Amino acid sequence: MKQKDYSILALISPNKEGETVLKEALYLQNTLEVKLVILNVIKEPSFFERNFQPEETELAIKNAKQELTDFVRKVIGKEIPNNIVISVRAGDPVDVLLEKSKTDSLEFLLIDKSDSNYPGALTKEEVDKLISLSKCPVLTVNKDFGVPEIKNIAIPIDITQSTKKRLLWAQFLAKKHGAKITILSALKANIDVEKSLALKNAQKIQQLLQDHDIQCDIKILKVYNQDSHQVILEYIKEEKPELMIIRTHQESIFSNKNIGKFVSEIVHGSQLPVFTVNYTPNPIDSLFL
């Protein structure tokens, strides 16, 4: 049977800063066995250029594509294989990515979240906008973090929200990387952990994952009298998971407010890769997972 042609899209600038992001994308492409689309978005042409000098824009895109091709070839050290596609668009990077998240049936987008000022870098506000509006998951990585081998995937959960979509992604990624999953369950009240719903809910999920032959640990986080995002960031600092999966657009017991703010704090408060799963169902998920 012919393998389905699944794709991930990585926003890459053909410069030193983009090299680590590209290596992260290549690592994931290899482990997930998918097609990789490498995209660079160049400056949008002016009204005058679009209407009176369209050939200048076409030439700029052609030259940018050649530059990106040469950059990718240099990083991988060989000719570009057929399962890597080079693409260049002119326009606003976030608008281009949002359009592609709607039309290209992508598994997820991969972007740099380092809030740097190199050509092609996204600002913190642009990263947040993309995460909030994307129709597919977004994996944010930091160009200064390196490319860690994924051994521990952390998932914050609580008893008030659905975990199905994140668990599907976590299960898939854990299987592909031979990684364990750590469930982070929130305990708001000052009660016995052993009697808490937080633990009982986490144990149900743990059993579900173990039934699928996935190693799973539970970490109960006491969030009362503390900033919600700080509890997660402290865990990240201490335990150093290689990946975290969180859900956007959902009320959370961790924050008591829209999780968009909570997600932003986690994404930008740590250098580790954060995989954000959108609340709106993406039809392709049922095929991929």
List the helices and strands and how they pair.
Layout: E1 7-11, H1 16-32, E2 35-42, H2 47-52, H3 54-76, E3 84-90, H4 93-103, E4 108-112, H5 124-133, E5 138-141, E6 152-157, H6 164-177, E7 180-187, H7 197-211, E8 216-222, H8 228-239, E9 243-247, H9 259-269, E10 274-277, H10 284-288
Parallel strand pairs: 1-2, 1-4, 2-3, 4-5, 6-7, 6-9, 7-8, 9-10
Antiparallel strand pairs: 5-10
Helix pairs in contact: 4-5, 8-9
List keywords for this structure.
289 residues, 2 domains, UspA, single chain, Rossmann-like_a/b/a_fold, Rossmann fold, alpha/beta, UspA domain-containing protein, 10-stranded mixed sheet, elongated, 10 helices
Describe this structure in words.
Pfam families: Usp. Belongs to the universal stress protein A family. This is UspA domain-containing protein. By secondary structure, the protein is α/β, with parallel strands linked by helices. It folds into two domains: 7-141, HUPs (Rossmann fold); 152-288, Rossmann fold (3-Layer(aba) Sandwich). Helix content is 43%, strand content 20%. The protein has ten helices and ten strands. The protein has helices at residues 16-32, 47-52, 54-76, 93-103, 124-133, 164-177, 197-211, 228-239, 259-269, 284-288, and strands spanning 7-11, 35-42, 84-90, 108-112, 138-141, 152-157, 180-187, 216-222, 243-247, 274-277. Strands 3-2-1-4-5-10-9-6-7-8 form a ten-stranded mixed beta sheet, sandwiched between helices. 38% of the residues are buried.
